[in-house]
Amino acid sequence: MRIIEQIRGYYNDPEYFPNIRKIAVPIIIQQLMFSALNMPGVIFVGQKGDASVAAMGLAGQVAFLLQFRVVRDH
């Protein structure tokens, strides 16, 4: 029960949601930009066939995971 009370304490803190927004908004913008930059590549590669699109999707997932590595190191 103590953990639940601690979580409720976070939600009752008036600074909790503004602090979450300060972190979340740049992350959301960065992810939208990453997706927007990846989309034209998928469209162009899509003309080559299904296997090419699948490879592009796999490469996108690897790039997504590498982003976390870079963020964690800095």
Q: What labels describe this entry?
A:
74 residues; mainly alpha; 3 helices
Walk me through the topology.
Blueprint: H1 2-12, H2 16-46, H3 50-73
Rough outline? elongated
Strand segment count: 0
The tally of structural domains comes to 1
Structural Rg: 19 Å
Q: DSSP strand (E) fraction? A: under 5%
What pattern of helices and strands is seen along the backbone?
HHH
**Helical residue percent band:** over 70%
Mean pLDDT across the residues is 83
Total count of helical runs of at least 4 residues: 3
- Poorly predicted runs are none
Q: Which structural category do the helix and sheet elements fall into?
A: mainly alpha
Terminal Cα span:
36 Å
How is the biggest beta sheet arranged? none
Task: Offer a concise description of the structure.
This protein has one domain (2-73). The protein contains 3 helices and no strands.
Explained architecture:
By secondary structure, the chain is an all-alpha fold. The protein has one domain (2-73). It has three helices and no strands. It has helices at 2-12, 16-46, 50-73. The chain is elongated. The two termini are 36 Å apart. The model has no long low-confidence stretch (mean pLDDT 83).
